[in-house]
Amino acid sequence: MQFKSIFILLFITLNSFGQGGTFGKDPIIQQENFDKQRVHWGYFLGFSSYNYQFNYLTVGKDIELKTSTGFNVGLVGNLRLNEFLDLRFEPGFYATQRNLVYPDIANSVDKLREVKAANLHFPLLLKYSALRTGNVRPYLLGGVSSTLNLGSNEKAPDDNFSDRFRVKTWTQNYEIGFGLDLYLEYFKFSPSIRGVFGMNDELIRDNDPNSPWTGNIQSMKTRAVFINFTFH
C-alpha cells in the first residue's frame, strides 16, 4: 500500500465522521477528561519509508536507491507535563528494505545490494498540543531516538566481495512531526506523520579501501518517514 492510498483512506474516514455528530458543526464532546491523566498508555500501527542520504568523496554517478513501504508496530507511554506539553516514549518494531543499485558495476548480481532491516526503534519525544477544538486537537512533536538494527551484519567478517552489505548496529536520530488527536466515543485515535534524520554515519566499509561498493562513500545516513496510527 502506497502512502497516497493511506492519505485517501484517512481523508474518507475523517470526512465520514465530520458528516455526523463527532466532528461536525456542533459536536458531542467525547473523552472530555482524557488529557488530564498523569500517565496513559497506547499502541500504534503504521507504515514507513526508509531512505539513505549519501555524501561522496569524489564526483561520480550517484548510487540509485529504491525504497519500499515497510510496516510499524509498537507501544506508547505518555507522561503529562502540563496542559500543553507531554513526554512520550514510543518503542516499536520497524521492518523495511532498501535496494542499492550501483550504476558503475556491470555485473547484474554485484550491481544490486539489498539492505534489509528489522529495527527496534526507541524515540523519546516532546509533544506540544494546541487548544482542543471540539473533538480535535492538533499537535507537534520532536525529539531524539536510537535504533537497533537486528540485521546489521556489523560484526560479520565477510563484506560486499562476499555479497554482504554491512551497517552499524546502533544509530542515533532526531525526529520532527505533527498529528491530530481525535476523541472518539470509546478511545482517542491519533494519526501522525514524522520525519526521521540519522545523525551518524552508518556504513561499515569493506576491507578493501578501493571497494566499488563503499570506497567512494564519505557518509551514509538514514532518512525516513513514519505514518503511525495510535490508539489510546
Automatic annotation (TrEMBL):
Outer membrane protein beta-barrel domain span: 33-202
Pfam families for the chain: OMP_b-brl_2
Descriptive protein name: PorT family protein
Organism: Flavobacterium difficile
